[in-house]
Amino acid sequence: MNDIVLETRQLTKRYKNRTAVDGVSLSLKRGDIYGFLGPNGAGKTTTIRMLLGLIRPTAGGVHVFGKPLAANRLEILRRVGSLVEYPSYYGHLTARENLETIRRILEVPKSRIDEVLRIVRLTGEDRRPVKGFSLGMKQRLGLAAALLGSPELLILDEPTNGLDPAGIQEIRELILSMPQQYGVTVLISSHLLSEIEHMANRVGIIRQGRLIFQDEIGKLQQRAAGQIRLAVSDPEAARLTLARQGTEADLKEGALLLPSLPDPQVARLVAGLVGGGHSIYRVEDIRRSLEDTFLDLVGGGDSL
Questions:
Q1: Does the residue 304 lie in any domain?
Q2: Domain boundary among 180, 198, 222
Q3: Is the CB of residue 138 less than 8 Å from the CB of residue 121?
Q4: Do 31 and 165 lie in a common domain?
């Protein structure tokens, strides 16, 4: 079985003199929760619209379930659920009635409505008019609609936009349950790394239409690895002592900087310095946040 559920190959979209998406090559494996990250206007929604066949690429292609989307659009989209921007509803109808209108189009059994209402935890609210729903409830109803056709791939565009912390937590828990409980692969776009790092196992970062990072989220976390700062009595002599012990350190602003190390190794280095006659004034663990690393990338850093 092919583990690649979704793949784009040099996907490009141009509008007159502006290139919105420039040679993007995404790859999603079965069971992934793939975080598609980038600032507003980076090209995320344009990419997603091409993945769903809503707009045509200028160049490149989209393959879903091993087949080209352009030649198999209807067959593929029957296996894909999506929530793009804010979902629209008939406000005077109940949640169940709104789902019924979609169910008839998809031609799925009526029992599926009860199943998706249970999944998104709206069973007790299904007889209420949607116009009285909170934004979080509306987003959950949008997820229910996306799941109605029992999709194998779920594409979500900024699903936590405008939600309060409780609503964000609800959506996050639902997304996390998708691969293991329901066998659904998920692509979720966001401009907030703090949201994606709680859910995704793989990440793609887009900036100005170009994909500048794609890998396991752990690789991104490695880029945020910090440093150890040692304030000592004689920094230059201490640096030479560490070098003789096989550890290289940089001298900056009167202190020693070392790569982040496990605690036992730091303890051995400090003991070695003390044993060599150096006074240790301070040991600091200086860490860059994952958010800082992300902002560096999308703010103009080099591609990875």
A1: no
A2: 222
A3: no
A4: yes
Q: Which domain holds residue 278?
A: 226-287
Residue 141 falls in which region: left (phi positive, over 0), alpha (psi -120 to 50) or beta: alpha
Q: What does pTM read for this prediction? A: 0.78
Burial class of residue 19, CB neighbours in 10 A (0-12, 13-18, 19+): middle
**248 shares its domain with 190:** no
- Based on the structure, what is the number of domains in the chain? 2
Total residue length of the chain: 304
Contacts within 8 Å (CB) and 24+ apart, 273-281 = 273/230, 273/232, 273/238, 273/241, 273/242, 276/238, 276/241, 278/232, 278/233, 278/234, 278/237, 278/238, 278/241, 279/232, 279/233, 280/230, 280/231, 280/232, 281/231, 281/232, 281/233
Residue in 154, 211, 234 with CA at minimum distance from that of residue 26:
211
Is the Cβ–Cβ distance between 29 and 3 less than 8 Å?
yes
Residue 261 belongs to a domain with what CATH number? 3.30.70
Q: Which two tokens stand for residue 304?
A: 């990875």
DSSP secondary structure string for all residues of 22-81: EEE--EEETT-EEEEE--TTSSHHHHHHHHTTSS--SEEEEEETTEETTTSHHHHHTTEE
> How far from the centroid of its chain's Cα atoms is residue 235's Cα?
42
* Residue that finishes a domain, picked among 206, 222, 238: 222
Q: Are residues 131 and 103 in the same domain?
A: yes
Per-residue pLDDT tens digits for 131-177: 999 888 898 999 999 999 999 999 999 888 878 888 888 889 999 99
Per residue in 274-303, pLDDT tens?
998 999 999 988 766 666 777 777 775 444
CATH label of the domain that carries residue 15: 3.40.50.300
